[in-house]
Design a protein that fits this description.
Helix content is 38%, strand content 22%. It is α/β, with parallel strands linked by helices. Helix 1 links the parallel strand 1 and strand 2.
């Protein structure tokens, strides 16, 4: 099975999870990149605002085509109880190219339900599975067990 893992990460937490998932899937990995920076406290505040009001953000054109894959695993951080704006935009832009999808996210406390709902709405596809990991759990064995279950 041909799998693509696509992710957006502002701080590196979601990147860590995406790389771990992709390693188990032995697929291709692509980062969603924005044309502007979200570093620092101003980037943090802008991220929450953009997610809350569904701001359209500019993302770079990906090098890999989702249509070339049987499954596209898409993930990002939860911002303001929804998915990060760059992930929403990626899903909207590539909705017609997605055959099957799976979703994952990282969160501080909660919000993954709203994030997964927004992802499903953005691409018009129901995920075959989903995975939410708390950022504090990225440093212990919990993600490995969750990833195994996600992949099954």
């Amino acid at each position: 099975m041909n799998v693509l893992t696509v992710y957006y990460s502002r701080t590196g937490n979601t990147r860590t999870l995406a790389e771990a998932i992709n390693k188990k899937l032995d697929g291709d990995l692509e980062e969603i990149r924005e044309e502007t920076s979200r570093r620092g406290i101003s980037g943090y505040l802008k991220s929450g605002k953009d997610a809350l009001v569904n701001t359209s953000v500019a993302i770079e054109t990906p090098s890999l085509k989702p249509a070339d894959y049987d499954i596209v695993v898409v993930g990002g951080p939860v911002w303001a109880f929804t998915i990060a704006s760059p992930v929403r935009i990626y899903l909207q832009q590539h909705a017609e190219q997605l055959q099957r999808v799976a979703f994952f996210c990282t969160e501080n406390m909660r919000g993954h339900k709203g994030a997964f709902d927004a992802m499903e709405k953005s691409c018009g596809k129901t995920p075959i599975t989903s995975l939410a990991v708390k950022q504090r759990d990225l440093k212990n064995e919990t993600p490995n067990k969750l990833i195994e279950s996600f992949i099954e």
